[in-house]
TrEMBL record:
Keywords, in A-Z order: Coiled coil
Name the UniProt record assigns to this protein: Filament-like plant protein
Family: Belongs to the FPP family.
Source species, domain of life: Eukaryota
Annotated coiled-coil segments of the chain: 35-190, 389-469
Keyword Signal carried by entry: no
Pfam family, one: FPP
Length: 530
């Protein structure tokens, strides 16, 4: 870009000074060729630099991904080791429990055998006893059967309640596990957002630092140009008849270009500028206008390329420098002391603006440090949250495993209870066989009891006959009593009717007496008045 600016300035000089171009045409062509060659080399170097920067960024991304993958793998390995240790401990505990259960099972089988033998002995003793005791033994066996059924029902109810409780715990553990997984996903999304914000802040800080370096370079160039202008102004005060013109060329250097190449290009451009000034002493106004257009174009390009870190200050610096160029290009109408004073004032203002830019860059650096500290704090908090969530997930898995172990233990207990129930059913079958033998004996006694029942029926028939005779006699007596009672009621009703008749006649007599008294009272009232 600097080479294009130099080429534009040279073309402007060639257009506005035909006398000089007619005198020095061949050097200008060589200079243009050299400038074109240098611009091509510069563009190739920039392309190479950009390609290398892209490769560096890609390598950095790959390295970051590899480091993150390695960290994840280490975390997974540590988690798997912990799980393996926990499973080993659980296996040891389960083996110990299995040993205890085997011993308990053997003891239960021994006790069951002893109980079965004792029960068989009792059954044989009960069968050998007298026939009069079979009813009591049968009732006892029925009571035992009821108790066994009750125990079986209670055992099944307990197993069902335990299974329901274990299933509810398992469902709660699964729900908690799903909630923890959702929390982990939300934390991962938050981590991605924070990392994206961190990357954006880092990019902004890098662009700010690059622009800060560019501004420092421009300020240094402006100071050098100011010194050169001051020197030219002092020369102009010594020679009042001559007009001084200055030409400045701005060019942008890349960060990776060598200093030797940039110094050589600067010397070549300054020598060309001095030659053009010496060859054209009578056209300072043309120089000023060309530099004004060049600086305006440069300002426009810089304002389009930069969106951060005090663009207004850089524009002010460009304006001040342009004004200084115009002042230096104008004819010396005032004294030399006034001109130097103006230059000193401009230099002071430029220094003040440079200090402002430096202070702003320091503020930006402090903000960058604060952002990095905040990023570190956020990463630490995120790691702590991830560790807590992992611990909660491990606890949930352990709870789930304990619930599964309890469920397996309950299933084993249920199987043991079922085996005991089968043994009891076999014992009940033996009891039923003995009961069938006893029932045969009972059948014999039932035949005897049937004969007794027949005799009882005869007696009951006689008793029923006697009851029927007594019932007939009782009904006859009741009928006679009812007839007598009806007769008495009829007599009482006739007497009651006669009483009602007498009461009605008395009522009529009383009413007639009342009307007579009223008549007498009415007949006595006029006499009393007279």
């Amino acid at each position: 870009m600097g080479c294009s600016i130099v080429a534009q300035t040279l073309s402007a000089l060639n257009i506005q000074s035909p006398e000089v171009t007619s005198k020095a045409a061949p050097p200008g062509d060589e200079l243009n060729d050299s400038v074109k060659a240098l611009s091509e080399k510069l563009s190739e170097a920039l392309l190479n630099i950009r390609a290398k920067e892209d490769l560096v960024k890609q390598h950095a991304k790959v390295a970051e991904e590899a480091v993150s993958g390695w960290e994840r793998a280490e975390n997974e390995v540590s988690v798997l080791k912990k799980q393996n240790d926990a499973l080993g401990q659980k296996n040891l505990i389960l083996e110990e429990r299995v040993g205890h259960l085997d011993g308990a099972l053997k003891e239960c089988l021994r006790q069951l055998r002893q109980a079965r033998e004792e029960q068989e002995e009792k059954i044989y003793e009960a069968v050998a006893k007298k026939g009069c005791e079979w009813e009591s033994k049968k009732s006892e066996l029925e009571n035992k059967l009821v108790e066994l059924h009750a125990q079986l029902q209670s055992a099944t109810d307990a197993d069902n309640s335990m299974l329901a409780e274990i299933r509810s715990k398992l469902d709660a553990a699964e729900k908690e596990n799903s909630i923890l997984k959702l929390k982990l996903l939300s934390k991962a999304e938050e981590l991605e957002l924070r990392t994206s914000e961190r990357d954006l802040s880092i990019q902004a800080a890098e662009t700010a630092s690059k622009q800060h370096l560019d501004s420092i370079k421009r300020v240094a160039k402006l100071e050098a140009e100011c010194r050169r202008l001051k020197a030219l102004a002092r020369k102009g005060t010594l020679a009042n008849d001559q007009r001084s013109g200055t030409a400045s060329s701005f060019y942008v250097e890349s960060f990776t270009d060598s200093q030797s190449d940039s110094a050589e290009r600067a010397l070549v451009i300054e020598n060309d500028g001095c030659k053009s000034v010496d060859s054209e002493p009578h056209h300072p106004d043309a120089w000023a206008s060309a530099l004004a257009t060049e600086i305006g174009h440069f300002k426009h390009e810089r304002t389009l390329g930069r969106s951060l870190i005090v663009p207004s200050v850089e524009i002010d610096l460009m304006d001040d420098f342009l004004e200084m160029e115009k002042i230096a290009a104008l004819p010396e109408t005032n004294s030399g002391s006034d001109h130097t004073a103006r230059v000193d004032d401009r230099e002071a203002t430029l220094r003040d603006e440079l200090e402002v830019m430096i202070s702003r860059t320091t503020e930006l650096e402090e903000k960058l440090k604060m952002m990095t500290a905040e990023k570190v704090n956020l990463e630490f908090a995120l790691k702590v949250n991830l560790l807590q969530i992992q611990d909660q997930l491990i606890e949930a898995n352990e709870a789930k495993s304990t619930v599964e172990a309890a469920l397996e233990e309950a299933n084993l207990k249920k199987a043991e209870a079922e085996s005991e129930i089968k043994v009891m059913e076999l014992e009940l079958e033996t009891v039923h066989s003995s009961i069938s033998r006893l029932e045969k004996e009972v059948e014999k006694e039932r035949n005897v009891s049937r004969e007794a029942v027949a005799k009882r029926d005869i007696l009951e028939a006689e008793l029923s006959r006697l009851k029927s005779d007594s019932q007939v006699q009782r009904s006859a007596i009741i009928e006679e009593f009812r007839i007598n009672q009806d007769k008495e009621l009829a007599v009482a009703a006739s007497k009651f009717a006669e009483c009602q008749k007498t009461i009605a006649s008395l009522d009529r007599q009383l009413k007639s007496l009342a009307t007579l008294e009223d008549f007498l009272i009415d007949s006595d009232r006029p006499v009393a008045v007279l």
